What does this fold into?
Amino acid sequence: MKVLQEVFKIVVVVYIAAFVFFRFVLPALAPTEKLTGNRSALAMCGWELTAWKSYQANRPGFDFHRLSDDEKRRVIMFGLNEDFLIKTNFAWGNAANREIVIVCTREYDNVPVPAPWNLLYRNPAHAVGYSDGTTGLISPAQFDNLFLYGFVSLWRLATNSDSNFKIFKQ
It folds into this structure.
């Protein structure tokens, strides 16, 4: 009878431990679905590249200055809440000859998600979009060595007094 009581106690403890693990520990380890930091910047780069490709459906390249006023407005407005630099003129490429065409100047460290077994070590990185339509992350050292000739800030495009269109409709 004592053996049966001991087995019963062990089973109860295992069930309680499993309940606590699945109810409290596991949800705490799961990433949230909220887009923040690099997750948000990567999504914005991807959405923007998709929109740019739809604007330039019959052209082999992207030229900001050949876009309609509404398309220019949309390109500028997408990233004013982040600090993005974009290349205003480039040729669409493939994986072999791709180049960076969008870069987020803010550095985030939430992608990949820090893991407990890695002592929650964070990897700071910048989100980028490539001319083949893909997105990725580059390290701060790669960002510092990035040749930014031909890139322009969205803030600068929005406040450019030489623009022949108004960014904000009146």
